[in-house]
Amino acid sequence: MPIGEEINKAWENIKENIKTSAKESQGLRELKQHKPWLDEECLGLLDQRKQATMQWLQDPKQSNVDNLNNVRREASRHFRNKRKEYLRAKIEELETKSKTNITDLYLGINDLKTCYQPRTNIVKDEKGDLFEDSNSILARWRNHFSQLLNAHGVNDVRQNYTQQNH
After folding, report:
1. pLDDT tens digit string along 21-72?
2. Strands, DSSP E only, in 27-161?
3. Cα–Cα distance between 8 and 157 in angstroms, integer?
4. pLDDT above 60 (res 158)
């Protein structure tokens, strides 16, 4: 057996041992599903979109661009319809709960409400004033990172360091 195959076999053995010991000591954690309307059909469309993207990246001709746009459009339409169906069913469920138990109604409304958290595009400048227009925000970030990343005192630090060591 060549040395490369022995190394690969040893690595696979080590990897499996690490995985099994981690499972035994830590256990498996189920991932939280953030979008309850996401089903197998949606995952299939995500795979199709990924394959179309890869095909376009490998060969960027017009037919692949058209295919990618069609797959994206179909996936977006399907996701939008699934979300609407889910929300419609959830609202109907909340309507029936409102007739029997008001606490469940408020809990359900809170669950629906916390799903959406709007993003704010507000930034503070050096003085602490808030502004929200995109040009000012870009200028502020540009200024912030130029100050952060451009070290003006590097030579001073080097001189102090060399003076302390001598």
Report:
1. 888 877 776 666 667 888 889 989 999 999 999 999 999 899 999 999 999 9
2. 123-124, 130-131
3. 48
4. no
Rg (CA), the chain: 28
Q: What span, in angstroms and rounded, lies between the C-alpha atoms of 60 and 67? A: 11
Q: Where does residue 137 rank: exposed (0-12), middle (13-18), buried (19+ CB within 10 A)?
A: middle
- The model's pLDDT over 106-157, given as tens digits with 9 standing for 90+, comes to 888 887 776 556 667 788 888 888 888 888 888 888 888 888 777 665 555 5
Cα(6)–Cα(24) distance, integer angstroms: 27
Entry pTM? 0.49
Secondary element (H or E) of residue 123: strand 123-124
Neighbour-count burial of 86, counting CB atoms closer than 10 A to its CB (0-12 exposed, 13-18 middle, 19+ buried): middle
Do 107 and 67 form a contact (C-beta atoms < 8 A)? no
Q: Round to whole Å and give the CA distance between 164 and 40.
A: 65
For residues 45 and 76, give the distance between their C-alpha atoms in angstroms, rounded to a whole number.
9
Q: Match 């451009």 to its residue by tokens.
A: 150
Task: State how far the Cα of 71 lies from the Cα of 83, in Å rounded to an integer.
Answer: 18
- Tell me the two tokens of residue 20: 């099994």
